Amino acid sequence: MQSIVVFGATGSIGDSTLDIIASHPEKYKIYALSAFSQLEKLSLLTQKFCPKVLILPDENALKTFKQIHAGKSCQPEIRLGQEGLCTTAQDNEVDTVVCAIVGAAGLKSAYAAACAGKRILLANKEVLVSAGALFMDAVVQHNATLLPLDSEHNAIFQCLPAENPKKYLQKVIVTASGGPFREKTLAELESVTPEQACKHPNWSMGRKISVDSATMVNKGLEVIEAKWLFDLSVEQIEVVIHPQSIVHSMVQFIDGSLLAQLGHHDMRIPISYALAYPERISHNAASFDLLGLSRLDFMPPDFKRYPCLRLAFDALKEGGGACTVLNAANEIAVENFLQKSIRFTDIAKTIETMLEQITIPSLNHIDEVIAFDKVVREKTRHHLQSSMRG
Fold it and tell me: What does pTM read for this prediction?
């Protein structure tokens, strides 16, 4: 019986995780849940799973939640903020921590789980993008177990042998849909609207991640994650455009063999694998029908069309805080694009400018990473405001 914490319980990863857990009450129990704003949903989840602990962002959220949850039979202990998240991640009763908080807000609690030697199911990109070296050092030093939830990294993990995974490895191949603009001319990209960018050809996602998919910065972040997760050199990571999104990633070995993981784009597949590892369990996702597969296409990405992907490779080669700059500058640029303050093509230009202008300090502690992330965001906002005034 695994005792599980789900950070980000009301998001899409939380939904899929809790759906699997509900199907296997003999294997898993919920110790704690966290949520940021969806407090009514959290109340319903609390009644269903009756966790020992809830983590809310602040006193205002606590007041609102108490009103919503008044009179309910399950009344867990409630903790607040980053301190509440970190304390819960390190509780002795906890076996597994699902890190699905979006953005830099999830960084510190994931690091706390690593320092406590927990089994970590990681969906938060910022942890490895902004603090890859520090986080992986903590995983190794404290004998934590790290299992990726992203479908691409989970696919690579499934394809690599458990023993000596790098012994015969030549490279990993990360697939990308190419987003909604893979057939547009470069000139047409100048006039792309937020509504167009958020209309993904293969699936429905939140607005920010949809834009990241359109620019392919999301694939750049996944390249950085892959480097840290699997201890790879930049040269061992390749990205290919795969419009059908059926092959989630591939692994090539020195003898020419290529292993791929195929499946529907349903997060219950990688989550169930990580939850049960090294076993496998059933879940409610549809089975994959090979006979329904008509074709698989693969092509190299065009860095002129996807300059954000090139910038991610450049940041990874530079190392250190360059990846923190890439991620933070992108978030502010996307925020401005969605507000129609800048053009779609200005997202990459903003990231490139910040990578050129910002002096990167030595980052030796998780608090230093978080502080630097804030500085980058402030400088990016100032740069864009100055550009608009100019």
Answer: 0.94
